[in-house]
Amino acid sequence: MAAYDFIVVGAGSAGCAVAGRLAGESPAKVLLIEAGGSDRRLSVRVPLASPRQWGTALDWAYDTDPEQGLGNRRLTLHSGRMLGGTSAMNAMAWVKGSDLDYDGWRLPGWSWNDVAPVFARIEQGPMRIGRVPYPDELSDRFVAAARAAGVAADDDISGPVLDGAAITPATIHKGERWSAARGYLNHQKNLTVVTKAQVHRLIIRNGRVAGVEYRRRGRMHQAFADREVVVSAGALGTPKLLQLSGIGPADHLRSVGIAALVDSPRVGLGLTDHPHVWTTWSLAPGFVGLSDMTNPKWLLQWVLHRRGKLANSGVEALAHIRSTADLPACDFQLMVVPADATVDANSLKLQPRLSVGHSYWTPRSRGNVLIRSSDPDAPPAVRLNVLGERDDVDALIRAVEFSRAIMATEPMASAVERELLPGADADIDAHIRDTTITTFHPACSVAMGGEADSPLDDRLRVRGVDNLRVADASALPRIPRANTNAPSIMIGERCADFLLAR
Ligand SMILES: Cc1cc2nc3c(=O)[nH]c(=O)nc-3n(C[C@H](O)[C@H](O)[C@H](O)COP(=O)(O)OP(=O)(O)OC[C@H]3O[C@@H](n4cnc5c(N)ncnc54)[C@H](O)[C@@H]3O)c2cc1C
């Protein structure tokens, strides 16, 4: 039985920021508990290698229930289970979002003017933000074609003004991935990091969270926090852990045999992700894109010099667009991958292809994440309701038409042969229903808000119980027009600010 000042559950994007800053800027004793293990692996360090983590022990890989809007397909939601969490697995794009996102939350202390200095501090401090270092000629051509087709000629596309096309701003530094663990965990003396330790429940006594119970190497342990516990287990892991601990919709908790200590009906509700659809193209003769990425020369270049194709994220370029002119801000991120993103990335026989991803930033559909049983090892039921609203399908159709116009513009047009997916004569509507996935940005499942039934208040405190905060993507009140790593780290930084100020 060990005692600390603070306990942080989950060493992901947000949890590393909370724990690293608490330990770095105060004498407090901090315990950071992570279910996964070390991040010292090639598939983490080598930027292009991260899809090799999928389906391994480094991936929680929760499946959704059958999704009605997708013809009852199940989606697999990848997320990182190691030091760095999903920041050690993601595609490394660094986008903060629009000022409208943060202003729209209408929460004191969270307007764009409030969070902009926090993002600036992150960018100039712990995190290293560069550009995808060695983009393929195809990616440069896409950026030029997007601009020729009317997308703003702005290089700074990470927010708050998003419009533009550019080589991807990315958490890649000197040819290596820069995760939140690399940025924030610096062997601080007062920070204890315990890995391969899965928290099974929070210990709640007299309306106060006293500590956590976790399993490590087959044995149960307890740890206690004199001050606060922060749950940063991600948008699926955090509602799961709160519900296992008796914090959630009381009826549902009772139905799975858990005593409801805090009836908080919206813990697990409001889950949102960005729907995503790929289109693919074959390349004109002479272009290879990433089809030769398994050539040993690229590995050698990376090992010796941290250079070459493997030092890139696969998402080499982005275009942020408005699918209709009357929108107040961009509603889509187009992602360019100079390969076929729809085939198994570990396949050794990659064809010369280019893919355009269409990630919808302002979907209407909402879902939920609810535990199925009191067993901490049982995956929760995840329902995203992707394309549950017709408007979301219509928006994706507009975006596919927009990217087709870019692909038909020089200097892109002469670099591709033809559209393979969905194909010039195909029914786009059916393609969207058959192939839409998400961008792996689950969020908003334990949201902050000003209403009495919002799970969190505007200081990330869990309503109905003392000494407990949530800091991660689940706390987002509404999903921003952004890839969710930067917003999650920002939330972790804000949580540390609140705790350090006490
Ligand atoms: C394939 C992929 C590509 C992506 N690409 C991008 C991108 O290019 N740019 C971008 O901005 N975002 C991207 N994202 C999303 C982004 O990385 C995540 O939104 C962000 O990292 C979430 O941060 P978080 O702190 O909420 O959770 P996480 O970083 O997932 O951290 C949660 C941590 O908690 C741990 N944990 C969970 N349960 C427990 C428990 N019970 N006990 C102990 N530990 C526990 C987990 O193992 C994990 O380490 C991508 C995601 C994926 C999967």
Q: What report would you give on this structure?
A:
It is a single chain. α1 (about 15-25) runs parallel beside α12 (about 485-500), α4 (about 110-125) crosses α12 and α10 (about 390-405) crosses α11 (about 430-435). The strands form 7 sheets. Strands 1, 2, 10, 11, 12, 13 and 25 form a 7-stranded mixed β-sheet that branches. Strands 6, 17, 18, 19, 20, 23 and 24 form a 7-stranded antiparallel β-sheet that branches. A 3-stranded antiparallel β-sheet has the order 16-21-22. The protein has helices at about 15-25, 40-45, 100-105, 110-125, 135-150, 180-185, 235-245, 250-255, 295-305, 390-405, 430-435, 485-500, and strands at about 1-10, 30-35, 60-65, 75, 130, 165, 170, 170-175, 175, 190-195, 195-205, 210-215, 220-230, 245-250, 260-265, 270, 275-285, 315-320, 330-335, 355-360, 365-370, 380-385, 415-420, 435-440, 470. By secondary structure, the chain is of the alpha+beta class. The mean pLDDT is about 95. The structure holds flavin-adenine dinucleotide. Flavin-adenine dinucleotide binds next to α1, β11, α7 and α12. Flavin-adenine dinucleotide (FAD) binds near residues 34 and 93.
Short description:
Helix content is 25%, strand content 23%. The protein has 12 helices and 25 strands. The mean pLDDT is 97.
